[in-house]
Automatic annotation (TrEMBL):
Compartments it resides in: Membrane
Name of the protein this chain belongs to: NADPH oxidase 5
Lipid bilayer topology: Multi-pass membrane protein
CDD domains, per database record: EFh, NOX_Duox_like_FAD_NADP
Pfam family, one: FAD_binding_8
Taxonomic placement: Eukaryota, Metazoa, Chordata, Craniata, Vertebrata
Residue ranges constituting the FAD-binding FR-type domain according to the UniProt record: 395-531
Length: 720
């Protein structure tokens, strides 16, 4: 930290001390634990003992500031000495194996990592044997210092600040930067979307002005109402065009994808939806003001009669324009509110789903409300109807059954569906699924997690985050599933294509079972990830369950990779280059998976292990597929409570050739990725044009997209 930051930090510590210490101006152990917010009391007790220089069982402000001053401005040796004292529990001047084991156990608890006792012993021995240079049975300060020098990253973080564990929130000053939306990189990387939005805005302005000029005779309020009405004709039709999924999927395979922002259709749909809300409110308000003027000037009808009756005869269908307008305004407001992020992300997807189905009533009322709307609606309406008919036909063709279910950690349900022979899809595509035993009329979108090369089965991984997904998970946990005998199971598997068989799942073990449950699938539908195989260097980033589209993609990539090697057994680069360009342009794939906790990695560990084993250790161009795992609940190497653990994990991973957390060869990194460093490394590899594909939380997407714009990478977010 800089001198200015140190000063601000000390001021913050002083302020925090005064708020914690209370009237006695002293901090006891319990208050110290509360202030540090640590999961394990071991570190709080060790820090407290070292800060309490006079042994009074309490820390004064002077003692706290004296210790922190040493840690911030002290030499590297001072900082390492403090770390050594934390590990030297009995104060003997050396660290024995039992002390080291106690420290590492507390480190595991702080990082929310659960390992068997045997693995903890292995970690302890790995670090102890490496540090105990003279085999004396204990680690001295000089030996610990020498061991830390083998980990430059740890030393660097210690040198920056040994007191990061007490770093105040929002310490970094917000630098005055040019707003992201005004940077050249943003406009360059979003040129198609921005150009499209500009054309869309210009078209609305032109329609508004033309409609106003045609209705000058009606007065200013009438002109505004007509202008907004014409814009609503366009937007209420265009909002439907943006959700023609089959047409968009087909267009993604054509040159149109290079011109139009097809990958932004969900965002554009939302923008048009908000535009409809604004135009409708202004349209309604302008009509109300006009009716108020008319009721005062001619006196034939009251304002409420203009709004809620057919007496004035306004409208082309029996004077119903006002009544249908009021109903439309209510429906539009309801749809926008129920489609908000808060509703969709808070486990109430059904509210969004059922309220959005009112679009049928909106279109019907618009045809009655406006004499010219049908002219805008007829062509896209027919296409929409054809898409719906095709979707119903496709979903009902063939007998689709869920034949296998796996209940995975973090309430993830893995469905295995018998794949019909006519079902063809691309890696990363998604489908809508309906399971009548869960909800007869509800359809929900999920990404296909199996590869197209897997001919017989279709995989879906569904995380329980809402009412429908929770009902699905609980359905396969019901205890009555155990009542089916093994003979009944055999008969069910032999006749799984017949609906006459039972629909209750047959339980083989606690989390894995075979079953024969009827389902309907509509799709597949394309996503931005279809462009992965036309990329040269693809960076795939999945957060949590966001790995599902990349599970399919990674399997497909490796299938094509092996086909390339079979076509070129000696794998001579010059000979294989033509094959690579014709079948797959990919030269390098970086896969980044970010999870909150350890159990979340269990979803796809077997798949990732297989991919690691199938890939050769060395390639002429370097590793074709490189994996990067991050566990956000684990404390990073810049945290004093995790330094020893991360050193031990590194040493044991080198010894056993696999990671202790996931079992993969790839070492799981603690904390969150430093995207600037990650993308800097990608940029330096110079494997060709970089495209970044992301699936996960919207908040993380913003941070990643900002870095992509900085480095000039194309960014694609999974939306459906």
């Amino acid at each position: 930290m800089s001198l200015e930051e140190d000063t601000r930090w000390l001021e913050w510590v002083t302020k925090q001390f005064e708020s914690i210490a209370g009237d006695d101006k002293e901090i006891d152990l319990d208050e110290f634990k509360t202030a540090l917010k640590v999961k394990e009391s071991f570190f709080a007790e060790r820090f407290f003992a070292l800060f309490d220089s006079d042994g009074s069982s309490s820390i004064s402000l002077d003692e706290l500031l004296e210790a922190l001053e040493l840690l911030i401005h002290g030499s590297e040796t001072d900082k390492l000495h403090f770390l050594f004292q934390v590990y030297d529990v009995d104060g003997s001047g050396s660290i024995d194996p039992d002390e080291l084991r106690t420290v590492l156990k507390s480190c595991l608890s702080e990082s929310a990592i659960s390992l068997p006792e045997e693995k903890l012993d292995d970690l302890t021995l790995a670090l102890f044997e490496s540090a105990d240079k003279d085999n004396s049975g204990s680690i001295t300060f000089e030996e610990l210092k020498a061991e830390l020098e083998n980990f430059p990253e740890v030393m660097e973080n210690l040198t920056i600040s040994a007191a990061n564990w007490l770093k105040p929130p929002n310490l970094e000053q917000k630098k005055c930067k040019t707003p992201r939306y005004l940077t050249r990189a943003y406009w360059h990387n979003n040129s198609r979307k921005l150009l499209f939005l500009c054309l869309y805005a210009v078209l609305n302005v032109l329609l508004f002005i033309i409609a106003m000029l045609k209705n000058v005779h009606g007065g200013p309020w009438f002109m505004v109402a007509r202008g907004c009405g014409q814009c609503l004709n366009l937007n209420c039709t265009f909002v439907m065009v943006l959700m023609l999924r089959r047409c968009l999927t087909w267009l993604r395979a054509t040159w149109v994808v290079k011109v139009l922002p097809l990958d932004q259709n969900i965002l554009l749909h939302q923008i048009v939806g908000y535009a409809i809300l604004i135009f409708s409110i202004v349209h309604t308000g302008a009509h109300v003001m006009n009716f108020a003027r008319m009721s005062q000037t001619d006196g034939m009808y009251q304002l409420w009669e203009y709004l809620l009756t057919i007496r004035p005869g306004i409208g082309w269908v029996n004077g119903t324009a006002s009544i249908t307008g009021v109903i439309l305004q209510v429906l539009i407001c309801l749809m926008v509110v129920c489609s908000s992020t808060f509703v969709r992300r808070s486990g109430h997807f059904e509210v969004f789903y059922w309220s959005h189905l009112s679009y049928i009533w909106v279109w019907a009322l618009l045809i009655v409300h406006c004499a010219n709307f049908w002219k805008w609606f007829v062509v896209p309406g027919v296409v929409f109807l054809i898409e719906k008919v095709v979707g119903i036909a496709v979903s009902r063709m063939g007998g689709l059954y869920i034949v296998e279910v796996n209940l995975l950690p973090s309430k993830v349900t893995h469905l295995v569906i018998k794949r019909p022979p006519f079902f063809h899809f691309k890696p990363g595509d998604y489908v809508y699924i309906n399971i009548p035993v869960i909800a007869k009329y509800e359809w929900h979108p999920f990404t296909i997690s199996s590869a197209p090369e897997q001919q017989d089965m279709l995989w879906l991984h569904i995380r329980s985050m809402g009412q429908w997904t929770n009902r699905l998970y609980e359905y396969f946990r019901q205890p009555e599933c155990q009542t089916i005998s093994n003979k009944r199971l055999t008969a069910s598997l032999r006749n799984k294509h017949h609906e006459s068989r039972t629909q209750l799942p047959a339980k083989l073990n606690e989390n894995h079972r075979y079953c024969n449950i009827k389902c309907y699938v509509d799709g597949p539908f394309g996503t931005p990830t279809r462009q992965i195989f036309t990329s040269e260097h693809a960076v795939l980033i999945g957060a949590g369950i966001g790995i599902t589209p990349f599970a399919s993609i990674l399997q497909s990539i490796m299938c094509r990779y092996h086909m390339r090697k079979q076509n070129c057994p000696n794998f001579n680069y010059s000979r294989c280059e033509a094959i690579k360009d014709n079948e797959m342009k990919l030269r390098k794939v970086d896969f980044i998976w970010i999870n909150r906790d350890q159990k979340s990695f269990e979803w796809f560990v077997s798949l990732l292990t297989k991919l690691e084993m199938e890939q050769a250790d060395e390639e002429p161009e370097g590793r074709f597929l490189e994996m990067h795992m991050y566990m956000t609940s684990a404390l990073g190497k810049n945290d004093m409570k995790a330094i020893g653990l991360q050193m031990a994990l590194d040493l044991l991973a080198k010894k056993e050739k696999r990671d202790s957390i996931t079992g993969l060869r790839t070492r799981t990194q603690p904390g969150r990725p430093d995207w600037a460093k990650v993308f800097q490394k990608v940029s330096e590899e110079k494997k060709g044009k970089v495209r970044v594909f992301y699936c996960g939380s919207p908040a993380l997407a913003k941070a990643i997209k900002a870095q992509c714009e900085h480095f000039g990478f194309n960014f694609y977010k999974e939306n459906f």
